[in-house]
Design a protein that fits this description.
The structure holds 2 protein chains of 2 kinds. Chain A is α+β, with helices and mostly antiparallel strands. Chain A has helices at residues 43-51, 93-103, 108-121, 137-150, 167-184, 195-201, 219-224, 229-234; strands spanning 5-14, 17-27, 32-36, 58-63, 66-67, 78-81, 155-159, 187-192, 204-209, 212-217, 239-243, 248-249, 252-253, 261-265, 270-271, 276-288, 292-299, 307-312, 322-327, 331-333. Chain A has 2 domains: 5-233, Rossmann fold, CATH 3.40.50.300; 238-338, no CATH class. By secondary structure, chain B is an all-alpha fold. Chain B is 78% helix and 0% strand. Chain B has 12 helices and no strands. Classes of the chains: A alpha+beta, B mainly alpha. The interface between A and B is medium-sized, with 24 and 19 residues.
Chain lengths: 341, 256
């Protein structure tokens, strides 16, 4: 079961605070969408509006073509996987997973069969008779997922579900979430503030800030060709060099595509060779990160600037040495897109 | 220091328990007055109490009033607490305050108010009137205990139940009540004991059928007798039983 979601000019206000400013978003059926942004950006509010926990101050929510703006969570084809799992502590795992089916009037035999099937999918079939407090965090996570999916929702909403897990388990759960989403084909809308998690699982990432959508696109688009300085910075580290329309910059004349604004270069796109020269620079600091060396360079022409570059293993100059730096894949953001970063 | 703290502990327990111990000991007094010296052991007074029809009726009345009034206070308190915990309304704080306010008013004042109001609407002093009075004093207590027990964790489980399609009564019956069971039980037993012990309201709001404390009071008016001690000991036994049951079920669970 799956459905598309249309969010038309949704605005939401809490008293005098506007949490969402006329947000428009189209989510295709079966898509894995990640709402990404810092805390307070409105991503959880948007998720709650899709789930029916809030009625938007203005605008419309369509799920599967039907207007759901004023329909409560109980009657929506959506289920939510909550941040703190929200399992029922007095019920066994099997009863937890079967709860939604019980509310839909399914017979006891049929629903426990379906619940076992769902528990099997998340690898917990052997623990069906246990209570939630006997499980680890990652296992509770899976029960919550099985419970939300057992009622075969059209849209599954995930509210920072991996936030409480340690890094290794989080990476593993990301892979599992993605695999399960592929298998059931349900539309997933996932909220997180972790950009690595977003890139790992999303078909499309929606970067949000101050109640607005900054950028919406595939992980590659959002990371490689950010539309605003905020989304450029939020997706990862970024070197910023102001350039004029003719290519003049504090580093000297640069051979980059024409356009006034801010030249943005990811650390891995600065190196000892590349598409255009960034001029001579002195290495001031270097540390080894396993996959790369993270190096701080001070350009000779602009001692106030610091450029961060990731150089490949084994190939980095001595601290204090002067080298010529090169850049590749430049992104130039026009001045209008560099506000509020 | 260690020696002193044992002395302190002993003094403390003596202070708390001496009256009760005296009461129980002299309920076995083989004589007419429950005062020293102790003259020997007899079960005569217990036999007298247990064969006293008025006394047994009062005891039965007390049980019924305590049971029904505390169930009623528990239900109302539970509904009020889950409602106020679920949504923030304009005036939520005011409503909470109004619900808890009767706790700060003396029982005598509440009883006088109820007496006047029942007169106005034509409800005669009776066990029903007393039961209503006990709901009035126990509702704030039940509400406060249950409301305090509803934390973020509970709220989010209730949200999940609604999200999975539960109707409001199913949310309350299948999720909220079982999750809050320890505090529901604590609220119920407290309300039960308060109603069981309550004298002033019962005294003003009953006439022909009376509750146990009122019956004991009328017995005391005809002077001290080991029989009153025997009644007191029986009431004390019921309270002890409740505490033991609580200790064995609820509080043990909490420490696990």
């Amino acid at each position: 079961m799956t459905a598309d979601v249309h969010i038309n000019a949704v605005e939401h206000r809490f008293n005098s605070f506007t949490a969402l400013h006329r947000v428009d978003l189209e989510i295709a059926a079966g898509e894995f969408i990640v709402l990404l942004g810092p805390s307070g950006c409105g991503k959880t509010t948007l998720l709650s509006i899709i789930g029916g926990f809030y009625t938007p101050s203005e605008g419309q929510v369509l799920i599967g073509g039907k207007d759901m703006t004023h329909v409560g969570p109980k009657d929506r084809p959506t289920t939510t996987m909550f941040q703190d799992y929200a399992l029922f502590p007095h019920m066994t795992l099997c009863d937890n997973v079967a709860f939604g089916l019980r509310m839909r009037g399914m017979s006891k035999v049929a629903r426990s069969e379906k619940a076992m099937e769902m528990l099997d999918m998340v690898g917990l079939a052997d623990k069906a008779g246990r209570k939630p407090h006997e499980l680890s965090g990652g296992q509770r996570q899976r029960v919550a997922l099985a419970r939300a999916l057992a009622v075969e929702p059209d849209v599954l909403l995930l509210d920072e579900p991996l936030g409480a897990l340690d890094l290794k388990l989080r990476r593993q759960m990301q892979d599992e979430l993605k695999a399960i989403q592929r298998r059931v084909g349900t539309t997933f809308v996932h909220v997180t503030h972790d950009q690595e998690e977003a890139m790992a699982i999303a078909d499309r990432i929606v970067v949000m800030n101050h109640g607005r959508i900054e950028h919406c696109g595939t992980p590659e688009e959002v990371y490689l060709t950010p539309k605003t300085l905020f989304s450029a910075n939020f997706m990862g580290e970024m070197n910023r060099i102001p350039v004029s329309a003719a290519g003049a910059s504090p580093l000297g004349q640069l051979d980059v595509p024409a356009g006034e604004g801010l030249l943005c270069l990811r650390p891995e796109n600065i190196g000892l060779e590349g598409q255009f020269s960034l001029g001579p620079a002195r290495l001031t600091e270097a540390s080894f990160f396993g996959a790369h060396h993270r190096c701080h360079f001070t350009p000779v022409n602009a001692p106030d600037l610091t450029l961060v570059a990731h150089l490949p293993q084994g190939a980095y100059p001595q601290v204090g040495a002067e080298v010529e730096l090169f850049g590749r894949d430049p992104v130039i953001l026009p001045p209008a897109m560099t506000e509020a970063a | 220091m260690r020696y002193l703290s044992w002395v302190y502990l002993l003094a403390l327990f003596t202070f708390i328990l001496l009256p009760v111990v005296t009461l129980v000991v002299f309920s076995f007094q083989d004589g007419r007055l429950p005062v020293p010296p102790f003259k020997g052991v007899t079960f005569e007074w217990y036999a007298k109490v247990l064969s006293d029809r008025a006394m047994m009726e009062a005891l039965f009345n007390s049980l019924i009033v305590a049971l029904l009034s505390s169930l009623c206070a528990l239900t109302l308190g539970f509904l009020a607490a889950s409602g106020l915990a679920r949504v923030i309304l304009p005036g939520s704080a005011l409503m909470r305050g109004a619900l808890i306010a009767p706790m700060t008013v003396s029982y005598l004042i509440i009883a006088l108010g109820l007496l006047q109001m029942f007169n106005q609407i034509g409800l005669r002093p009776s066990l029903l009137a007393t039961g209503i009075g006990h709901v009035v004093i126990n509702l704030p207590l039940c509400f406060a205990i249950i409301y305090a027990a509803i934390g973020e964790h509970q709220k989010s489980a209730l949200k999940a139940a609604r999200d999975l399609g539960a109707r409001e009564w199913q949310v309350l019956w299948l999720v909220a009540a079982p999750m809050l069971m320890p505090s529901l039980a604590a609220a119920f037993f407290l309300a039960f004991t308060f109603s069981w012990d309550e004298f002033i309201i019962a005294f003003l709001l009953t006439r022909f059928d009376v509750t146990l404390p009122v019956e004991i009071w009328s017995m005391l008016r005809s002077g001290l007798s080991p029989e009153t001690n025997a009644v007191g000991s029986l009431v004390f036994l019921v309270s002890i039983a409740i505490v033991v049951v609580l200790e064995l079920t609820l509080f043990r669970k909490g420490s696990k």
